[in-house]
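User: For documentation purposes, I need each entry recorded in a consistent format: the amino acid sequence on its own, followed directly by the corresponding structure tokens. There are two entries in this batch. Please keep commentary to a minimum and don't merge the entries.

Assistant: Recorded as requested. Entry 1:
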Amino acid sequence: MENRYDAVIVGGGILGTFHAFHAMEMGLKVCLVEKDAYPKGATTQNFGQVVPSGMNSKWQQFGRESLRIYKEIQSQFDISIRQNGSVYLASNEEEEQLLVELRAINNSNDYTSKMLTKNECLDRYPGLRKDYVKAGLFFPEEVTVEPRIMIHRLQEFLSTRKEMEIKMGFPVIGCERNGEWVKVDGATGESLWAKKVIICNGSDFKNLYPEVFAESDLEVSKLQMMQTKPQGNYELNGSILTGWSIRRYEAFYECPSFASIKNNEPEDSLQKQWGVHILFKQATDGSVILGDSHQYADANKIEDLGYDLDMDIDHFMVEEAKKIMDLPTYEIQRRWYGMYSQCKTSDIFQKTIDGHIHIVTGIGGKGMTGSAGFSKKNIATIFNTQKINL
């Protein structure tokens, strides 16, 4: 029946798109709808690093499944996946100790990693300052993506190869259960009907169920990033994560020494104030993306984050990056900020309304790494029966 589906997925970002992908893989009839002409939220405004190594044990499993899914799709259709590994660079003995402890954890989890000496790091990453690096931990299985390209190619793959129905420019203004069906009303006047609706709304909390989000513990993080001009013949492979990443990423929370090392950090630094940790990732055009910072506001006070780029933050990040890597040029061609939502007290926000409407958002900075694997499990949980007859 026309406009009737097993599942309508609301939100064309990475989380919504992979929910749609896995629903189709189950043999369901699926429609993916996106309010804008193309996705332009956090999915396109990030580094493009897929780093299960930075996740806690639970989310590392989702991230590793994501790696498998990304690579499988890439073998069929170019979605910009490059398997060039990730490295964490320690700048002192404390950070090196955390790398040693994380490697032991990964060995027990059967996740491949390799300690690198100072000289191995210097040989592998040209421009890396010898007065910064002490050791490294390398994850060969991890990949990078081009965030401004990947989601569009993934949706092209789904629409052309998988024949998924995708409706762009379809703002949903109403979603209500009607008997055994859920009616999804678009601003254009078109309505869709679904047995299940999955709402992956990112940080858009004003259109659907605003009262649910107002009562939640969701918050929004604003991240500033920038991109240099192309670096000529210079090549920097993979994702480069540094000492501040070691002190920030959840994987390291599980290391025995983490708590004591974290407690020794100064509380009044600019790095703490702005939530900065320095990352580098080279894009396919030779430019280098670097950043980032983190500023927070509750879900119902997003406007408090402002609409401007704070140039003091950008200047601070560039100066700190120069202490780590001597790039051929630090001339910046593009600056931007991205926003993602996360929960203060849990790892993702999920709420079911009327038994058939499932809100899934607040995945935080785990989206690019964890969405593909998490969505597979979540779709299987939501559709715990065989294909529905329409």
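Entry 2:
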Amino acid sequence: MKCPNCNETLLMSEKNGVEIDYCPNCRGIWLDRGELEKILERSADHYAKKENYEADYKRYGDHGHDSHKKHPHKKKESFLSDFFDF
């Protein structure tokens, strides 16, 4: 299958039981029908446990209003970075 954006051949990866297609050139991510729902369902299951919510908040949460000044070029990560880490 070709990337709709740049016509590069898409690669397939499996993350937590969800197959996703991604473009190595433009880094676009293409989901088939139902894959977004699976990702959302797994995230809801993950955050249903209080210990997961608290651990992720400590890992990814806002650690103060001035945190962006210390690392201005670093993006915030989220639990979805585990899915999309090519």
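Summary note for entry 2:
The helical segments are 35-47, 50-60, 67-70.
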